[in-house]
Amino acid sequence: MNLLAIDYGSKRVGLAVGSTETGVAAPFRLLERHGDASLIKDIAVAVKGERADRVIVGLPLAENGGHTEQEGIVRTFVTMLEAALDVPVELVDERLSSREIESHMKAMGGQKAWKASGLDRDTAAATLFLQTYLDRQRKTWKIVPYDVNWPEDFAREEHRIKSVFGDAAIAIEHIGSTAIPGLAAKSIIDITVLIAQREDAEKFIPLLAKLGYEFASSSTERHFFRKYGQISYHLSIAYQDAGSFWKRQIAFRDFLRNHEDARKEYEALKCDLISEYPDARQSYCDGKTDFVQKILERAESERQ
Predict the structure, then answer these.
(1) Bridge-based pairing state of the strands 12-19 and 24-32
(2) What is the DSSP letter of 142?
(3) What is the pLDDT, as a whole number, of residue 95?
(4) How do residues 85-131 score in pLDDT, each as one tens digit?
(5) 82 CB contacts (<8 Å, ≥6 apart)?
(6) Residue 96: its pLDDT value, please?
(7) How far apart are CA 114 and CA 123, in angstroms?
(8) CA distances from 4 to 87, 131, 151, 206, 293 (A)
(9) pLDDT per residue over 29-54, tens digit each?
């Protein structure tokens, strides 16, 4: 998947490009801001020229994860950008730790080499947060043996999530492979929160941002968030009044918890797919579709 990253500065906009196949980000272009309309046209040309499948825009949060004035400006710009482009636009937390910055500088030959490369601040920022995004994607994109600490990782995060949703959370569940004892999995804790109405989900986006969750997408079935760090999380808000995401996730999880044969078959399938598609996430996910549907049918049959 080809990516175009945007660092939306107050006067200039830095662009970087990268690919999930290579895992490498590179500076691309610096654009002057002469109004958002002309800027969006220039970005659309870049998207087409670089055959970008997704646009990543840096979200300038405060160091503590709180809101900033520039964050609001960026969100407004992204809304306009989404309306103009035919590819998904994803907001990502652009905060970088000193360790991450130094790591990228070292990879380019140190601070002197970084400056000598002629990189400007905005393009450099876009390159850095895109590289961090790619690194995090690759870091979590492997299957590891089941970790007995995963339920505890969920329980700690569940407490934080409850503080955001309060009584609006009908239920909070640990789903996905890390919720199935004994199953090897990608080291990402999947969590789903069930609320009554889909229309209420939007108000939780800024509240979850304070916990470090990046809003990734929404559909007729869920609002989806990511948080990467020493422990990585995926969070889905499901709706009681729309979609069947909650029902499917719980049914699949519970069936594999109670059927060792299915659990072993699923683990073997995942290992085969990730070996065949190490950098193609969609192919990996598509490869599991038939198995998941078979399990859901078996679960439904047992309930009858």
Answers:
(1) antiparallel
(2) S
(3) 64
(4) 988 888 877 765 434 555 655 665 655 655 555 556 778 888 888 88
(5) 89
(6) 57
(7) 12
(8) 11, 11, 36, 24, 34
(9) 999 888 889 999 999 999 999 999 88
| Structural domains of the chain, with CATH | 2-140 (3.30.420.140), 150-303 (3.30.460.10)
Pull the structure tokens for residue 296.
Answer: 């859901």
Q: Round to whole Å and give the CA distance between 187 and 150.
A: 8
| Residue 86 and residue 65 in contact, taking contact as beta carbons nearer than 8 Å | no
Among 57, 61, 60, residue whose Cα is nearest residue 3: 57
Token reading at 203: 């108000």
Tokens read off for 23: 């895992």
7, 16, 195 from 119: Cα distances, Å = 13, 11, 46
Instruction: Tell me phi and psi for residue 96, to 5 degrees.
Output: -120, 135
CA 295 – CA 190 distance, rounded (Å): 19
| In 95-244, alpha helices (H) | 98-107, 111-116, 121-140, 150-165, 205-209
pTM for the full predicted model: 0.60
Return d(Cα 40, Cα 17) in angstroms, integer: 17
Identify the segments of the chain with pLDDT beneath 70. Answer: 62-66, 95-120, 136-141, 278-282
Nearest Cα neighbor of 4 from 108, 119, 88, 103 is 88
